[in-house]
Amino acid sequence: MIMSSSSQRGDFMPESTTPVSEQETARLSGGGSGAGQLLQNRLDLIEDLWKSVLRSECPPEQSERLLRLKQLSDPVSLEGRDGDSTSEAIVELIKAMDLSEAISAARAFSLYFQLINILEQRIEEDSYLDSLRPNSSADEAQRDAFDPFAPPLANQTDPATFGEVFERLRRMNVPPAQVEQLLRELDIRLVFTAHPTEIVRHTVRHKQRRVANLLQQLQSDAPLAHQLREECRDQLEEEIRLWWRTDELHQFKPTVIDEVDSTLHYFQQVLFDAMPQLRRRLISSLHRHYPDVQVPQASFCTFGSWVGSDRDGNPSVTPEITWRTACYQRQLMLELYISSVQSLRQQLSISMQWSQVAPSLLESLEMDRLRFPEIYERRAARYRLEPYRLKLCYVLEKLERTLARNNQLSEAGWQMPCEALTDPQVGLSGAEVLHYTSVDQFRSDLELVRNSLVSTELSCEQLDTLLHQVHIFGFSLASLDIRQESTRHSDAIDELTRSLELPQAYGDMNETERMAWLLQELQTRRPLIPPAASWSAATAETLAVFRMLQRLQEEFGPRICNSYVISMSHTASDLLEVLLLAKEAGLVDPPKKRASLLVVPLFETVEDLQRAPEVMEGLFKTPLYRELLPVVGQQKQPLQELMLGYSDSNKDSGFLSSNWEIHQAQIALQELASRQDVALRLFHGRGGSVSRGGGPAYQAILAQPSGTLQGRIKITEQGEVLASKYSLPELALYNLETVTTAVVQNSLVTNQLDATPSWNQLMSRLATRSREHYRALVHDNPDLVAFFQQVTPIEEISKLQISSRPARRKTGAKDLSSLRAIPWVFGWTQSRFLLPSWFGFGTALSEEVGGDSEQLDLLRRLHQRWPFFRMLISKVEMTLSKVDLDLAHHYMNSLGHPEQREAFEAIFQVIAKEYELTRQLVLEITGQNRLLGADQGLQLSVDLRNRTIVPLGFLQVALLRRLRDQNRQPPMSETAGAPEDTRTYSRSELLRGALLTLNGIAAGMRNTG
Q1: Which residue of the set 207, 391, 489, 651 is catalytic?
Q2: What pLDDT, in 10s, does the model give residues 132-143?
Q3: How many CB atoms lie within 10 A of CB 782?
Q4: Is the pTM of this model over 0.70?
Q5: What sign does the CA torsion over 868, 873, 876, 877 have?
Q6: Is residue 651 annotated as a catalytic residue, yes or no?
Q7: Is the distance from CB of 714 to CB of 304 less than 8 angstroms?
Q8: N or C: which end of the chain has fewer CB within 10 A?
């Protein structure tokens, strides 16, 4: 352990160890000690490469200081050493650095963590591939010992593959008809979001992928000749050196389109090809264990996106940006389809001289000849006897025309009417339309080809793969969810009613009056909004969003954007307001009982979660509202999507209270939906960090209340964890497969543990006490806001060019209510408190136990048997293993204003006391001697990062201190050795250094917001 040390102003000072990632390193536990052993075995290669690159790229003295710094913060080096002497040695090393060398140090440790991340991703891939291989006899014996009467899911923490979960279900005698019904209605939606730490240059992504591929070759089990192995290692070192000399930072503030581009990278490089493989693996496993069960539809797992459409608190997301995002997504899909069809045309070289062709295909060729005479003239001579190739030439022509139209639409913008587009070459107007107006037409052409092949007893896997991709992605790639804060709609309607001089303005009505007025307006065909009226900027944009949506659906079809999420939903009128504005734009037609937009309330605060069942019951009992819901399933039930917010409920009341209220709300909402005969799809707004609902997705899904999923779930995939889940093909398949198996298992294997009255009463007491203790510090302590602003890098985060979204919902406000959840968690994590993920838990547990051994035994039983409680303890244990109060104290002492030191020290002591209390009780409940003691693989990964990330924390503190001092005095000079080395550093240089430490710590901790 590196103990605390005092520092002089302006020096780079280290102090202690720092922690690890929250979510993605947790998945290493799937391999247990095996994964840990793999990490240990392969770590030597990474460290050797890292050292070689530093020695090649840095001056000798600098590289030796960096290597010495790494050595001093290495867990092995610390064994048997005096903590004070180690601390002093690190202090002297960092004091010898000027800003330039400090920046090199930040880059070096950031590179180290990114290499470790790639290594761990490869280990995960290897572990997943091993799980797909035929089982050994020992595995067979273990499966024969399967106990179907054990408490469902009680001791299961390792993610299951399709083969494992279907075998479990078969051994538990789950009827095939029940499995088939679930698979028929399986509806998994993963919604990608942006994150400020994930705007990585494509150039850097390419180099990371190259490094990953070379690592795979070098570490492959296949024998490599000594010379080939040496060549591969040399290539790997060369690639890392090129990476070192590449600027990892953008030289500009990312735009929303930059964020869109960053997110679409995963679809283009990985998911487009991975999704058909996912379905094939499901079908293969299903046929082994349930051979008579009908396979699910190709689109059982689909994607959504908030990038370019989530406008809550982000003024950069305009209607024009959302339109361009939709065009960008369609462009990407069309380009991928064009490439696939070109490859397919090469493969389908079937000649009519040697094979029959279905008459329907020949008839379509004759129609295509009349519509595209120039294609026929150009291709007929070559493909006269190869009908499949000729047909695909026509398909390619239509795809290219569709792409040309899409590009013109992107440039013209959403306000350009369709009839104004007049380019006859792409069939935009005038003569017959020659492009695809919908993905159904494209799919129909492909199915025509496949049916002809099948009729002649041929098959084509490449064609089947393409059809699967078309079913999953369509032309839109991912559905765009619009999100906006509730008051934007009520403010717009209030302004509208005042402009119309109604007897009572909307803002003056109570909830009952609002509901009556909204329902009345929804049922009339009279337009409410005057076409030529002038509005405030906010109202004009709110109304424009709905008009843009109507134009978007008209051009792209409803699939591109059919969900409208209302953040900070409080009442039923919040939903009807959106329906009324949508009606004015032509998206909703109540008299015809038609709506092409699904309104999704987002319940975020504890009070709103508690009130959600009452709000939704009133709406379900309103015939007009119910009639506008889409119908799903064989029973044609109306579908209601509801979003549950983890972030704001946590910021409002703490980790334990937030999770319990969401758990209770799910149960109450599902019971309500069952009574009202409504199908419910719960949308979980999970973040990457534990405090925002993060953690391994498999365990989180299994911990959902039994009976609440019923095969339907929607989950946000935060930008900060996209790389760790979707950067490599098998890694993506691992994540997608385990999410699917968790949904299947939770839906089919029910238990009554969530309904145990005494357990629920206990959890309610814990949640109440935890919330009281959390709010006493976070909301009631008058010094907490100043503590957070000074002791964490929150202010610098909001100023740095790392995101298109402001750190606060409202400009100018400096209170917690306006602060967005990501920077709230990001700040606490960078400074190693990680407070939102655990504070209040220990006090609640301590007061519940109160020295009573029987009550402690009860908590241990809950940990063993109840998936929900086990998940809570697991998340808190993971977070506690990363808290570093010595380093956090250094942040406080170095960055806090001297006049507030006494108040800040009091806050710190409250945090430290709660940490020790929580840690002690978690260990007593889990029965371990140290945190993560039950998982040596994960513990190794945590320890590795804890020690190695140390220098970045102290570099960050020094840079932040310099930045803040510059606000009060001229640019500072820094002396490294002789007086002639004195330099004056600009604010931009210091900002750059700060950003590098932010990114480096984020890389080391994997998910920080």
Answers
A1: 651
A2: 776 544 344 444
A3: 7
A4: yes
A5: negative
A6: yes
A7: yes
A8: N
